[in-house]
Amino acid sequence: MHQEPLRFKKSGRSAGQSECVEIGHTLRHLRDSKNPTGPLLDGVDVAALIRAARTSA
User: Fold this and answer.
1) What is the number of structural domains in the chain?
2) What is the residue range of 12's domain?
3) C-alpha–C-alpha distance, residues 22 and 24, integer Å
4) First-to-final CA distance of the chain
5) Residue 3 lies in a domain
6) Whole-structure pTM over 0.85, yes or no?
């Protein structure tokens, strides 16, 4: 079975800045836009990041 490579999208609100995260088209992965070949956060880590952001806001 052929697996499609992950595609990532940067928020339109980033205004061309590189200091943001990009979300994968599957909505299960995040990466640092400054280091696109670096590590990815998977679904479990993404959920934990969102929970932490919500509780600290």
Assistant:
1) 1
2) 8-56
3) 7
4) 42
5) no
6) no
- Only one residue has tokens 């590590």, namely 39
In a domain, 1, yes or no: no
Q: Structure tokens of 14?
A: 């980033």
Amino acid identity, position 37: T
40-49 burial by CB neighbour count: b if 16+ within 10 A, else e? Answer: bbeeeebeee
pLDDT tens profile 6-48: 898 887 777 666 678 888 888 888 988 888 899 999 989 988 9
CB-based contact 47:28 (threshold 8 Å)? no
Alpha carbon 9 to chain centroid distance? 8
Residue 34 covered by a domain: yes
- What are the residue ranges of helices labelled H in 1-57? 43-56
The answer to whether position 40 is within a domain reads yes
